[in-house]
């Protein structure tokens, strides 16, 4: 997903057909603030949102059954 290659991207909206977020997909996206996850999402891979230091909140849909390690790790200043 090239959407977050741009440092000005603050909001991520994933389309409804997405069912899995792979390992490391958004790791280190320090500009990411908001994530809208699709209602069909079932899996979030390892380190998928690790070190997204500006991320304020993520609402997980009830359909998510697997969340990789280490969930949503961040390092605070």
Produce the secondary structure layout.
Elements: E1 11-13, E2 20-21, E3 34-36, E4 43-44, E5 57-58, E6 66-67
What are the key terms here?
77 residues, mainly beta, Leucine-rich repeat, LRR (right-handed beta-alpha superhelix), 3-stranded parallel beta sheet, 0% helix, globular
Write structural notes for this entry.
With 77 residues, this protein is mainly beta. The chain has one domain (1-77): Ribonuclease Inhibitor (Leucine-rich repeat, LRR (right-handed beta-alpha superhelix), Alpha-Beta Horseshoe), CATH 3.80.10.10. The chain has strands at 11-13, 20-21, 34-36, 43-44, 57-58, 66-67.
- Which word captures the global form? globular
CATH 4th-level superfamily: Ribonuclease Inhibitor
Q: Indicate the percent of residues in helices.
A: under 10%
Low-confidence stretches: 1-6
How many domains is the backbone divided into? 1
Query: What's the β-strand tally?
Result: 6
Write the element-wise H/E pattern from the N-terminal end onward.
Answer: EEEEEE
Q: What CATH first level would be assigned? A: Alpha Beta
How can the largest sheet be summarized? 3 strands, parallel
Tell me which CATH architecture applies here: Alpha-Beta Horseshoe
Number of distinct helices: 0
> Whole-number radius of gyration?
12 Å
CATH fold label: Leucine-rich repeat, LRR (right-handed beta-alpha superhelix)
Q: What structural category do the secondary elements indicate? A: mainly beta
